[in-house]
## 1
Amino acid sequence: MNCPVAKILAVHTGSREAINADSDTAKGLESQLLLARGTRIMLTANLWTAVGLVNGSMGTVQDIIFNDRGPPCLPTVAFISFDSYEGLTITASDSTEVVLIVPI
């Protein structure tokens, strides 16, 4: 992809079982997330059903903003252009319509 890749590690809060859980046990949550500009993503939760941000929605990462510490901490926000979205957007400098997604 010829661009930086952010490797974001999961933060486990709880028992030792959570730290050692595989993706199936953790209901699809992975121990790490790789993000980069241009990466195709799929939502795995219903964020805002009224405008189409639902489980299975596909989009493309346009940019990732981190706090001062940078990766591997969670990003502050990811700018995503979704294939099917009917809500408000922000227009990026390249005229792409994006939605701001914050980590949950």
## 2
Amino acid sequence: MSTSDIFDIIQIIFADIVLSGDNALVIGMAAAGLPAEMRRRAIFIGMAMAAGLRIVFAVSASYLLAIEGILLIGGVLLAWVCWRFYKDLREFNALPDEADGAKAVSDGEAGETNFGRALVTILIADVSMSIDNIVAVAAIARDNTQMLIFGLVLAIAMMAFFASLIMRIMLKYKALSYLGLVLLIYLTVMMLHDGAAELGFF
């Protein structure tokens, strides 16, 4: 293995830590706002969707890199996710502790509605962040297919670890959910900035 390959692996690891961690943050935050019996299902489905999208985008990475404004599109999608999260977090933080009230919203149609909303939010975020992740990894790996596959597998593994951890933290310290939202807003701004710069707006 050459020095260049080692350097590329290090770059991919750092890119995956940042970008997969962000995706896991969205999944974990969305799951934390659900009734207890639905959380594991939401995390599993969210990670499955993210993994599937990453595989699809990895296969078409060369085409994605050729699309002008792809990062801008991802940034717009992520901005919508931020808005949805802001509304959901207000409801989530207004709930009593799990022992008193989180179970109450699980009954009947309310729980299913919240579950559906969470999946839509996760799906939109998965599309945006999968684009960002694959574009970043593909740019590093270039034509090295093995390197691209390594980045893909690592991203999925990191999501599986971080999503459950983030969900537990959000449930224990509800106020931290707003810090997660601030991070997502920052990422959205950076993605929109990079996308606009790519199109030569400034």
